[in-house]
Fold:
Amino acid sequence: MITEIDTKLLEKIADLTGKPTGALNIRKDSGCEARQSTEHIAITGKEDKPGIDIRIQSGTRGEKCYIPVIISKTGLSEMVYNDFYVGDDCDVEIVAGCGIHNAGCDESRHDGVHTFYIGKNSRVHYSEKHYGENAPEQTGKNVMNPKTVVYLGEGSVMQMDTVQIRGIDSTRRETCFVCEAGSEVVVTERLLTHGDQTAESEMEIRLNGAGARGRVISRSVAQDRSRQVFYPKMVGNSACFGHVQCDSIIMGEAKVQSIPAISANCTDAQLVHEAAIGKIAGDQLLKLETLGLTPEEAEETILNGFLA
Amino acid sequence: MLELKNISYRVGTPDGELEILKHIDLTIPDRELVVFTGPNGGGKTTLAKIIMGLVRPTEGQVLYHGEDVTELDITERARRGISYGFQQPPRFKGITVQTLLQLASGGEKLTKDRCCAYLTQVGLCANDYLDREVDTSLSGGEVKRIEIATVLARGSSLMIFDEPEAGIDLWSFARLTETFEQLHRRKEHTMIIISHQERIIRLADEIVVVSGGSITNRGSTEEIFPLILANTTGACPVIGRKERSE
Structure:
């Protein structure tokens, strides 16, 4: 049963309000709360392990698929495997995401492996938002460890937008793209940590085929005593173009490490990386204050813009 | 009306105390365009920042519309109708030009047409800029013009512009001068412009020359401008000697 708390979580992580049109799978507390396939997108449960298979027929265009996960039981720990088979010439949007409402003092944990097999000349927009919260007075930790592996076929494009909104005490993200000729991947990662949270993100983009392009734009904000570590890696194995950009705002007593790597195994590979860590610039705050914002509003505006 | 009473600003240095501003008294009537000019390091920007609250004076008072605002912070002064265009504006990753203009206007949602009008006034085309982030992808001149547009969008009763011409190309500068002229003609705002540019100086109702931390001269353009011209060469012994020998 979807409760009021669940409804709020679903809106937060997947912008879901009411029953959406399109394919749908809502996983709640390790069970299937709702499932809906369409003519072109089939969702089936796995027989051998927890998770689902999503099969998108070649030529499917303009369709959306929602697969959010919500956890409301404290102490629940799960490992889920979702496999996506996207045919040729598709243009689809996949909305994932995980929300935890921890109503107790035990750790709630969602680990997930998403593997994409994308055919030729397809476009996939994949978004994933993570959010955790505790019921009043409760202290159970919220943990999420997502792993995403993408095999991107010739001429295909994938845009992956990931956001860690707040409330995740510990996360270890692993992302790997294997890109064939003429394919393109754009990853935007937004991550906020606060309190004593920790976040680690390891990403590898292998540009294997000629003309493959990869772009990573990672922005994070580390507040209070939280810690973040980023390892984005772009590997050029062909005449390709790759760009990694990591920016972090550091606040309070937080610690951030950003270790981008570019690795060329072909003389025609063009790879660039940029990384910057710094606190909010004083002149940014002053400018917004001259527009009538309080120092607190100015800081919030800067952070919201940075993580938008 | 803006009144500065006995404004001084001193900073500590390893060699002792340095006086940046020395007992400045100045009154600026409403709806006037006043240009602060003078040599670099003379104290113009510090004086303007003291009006906005970006710098706190060591002594003296700032009164705006009769209210003593000396102890008010920047936000409060902004809400009372003072705005400031920075000489070197900051950039904001993730904040678009449209969002910044919206923040500046402070009120109802700005229509695209309204944003377009502000950007046109500084020589930018809204279609090219509204959705762009105010980050390092913009040139210094573009950021500067967006900065001026935010002051226009704010529409405050007192607008302060710190060297609006700095970093702006000739064509955009001509457009900007027209904008200041039109604003002044409408007589809706008081404007303080820190500038060294003749075209801006000539728009002024009053010129205030700030040099060595003091107001060394003030008056109408007709009175002061010839003195500035005379001083620019007279102050330089090399140029002065060369001209005298010719």
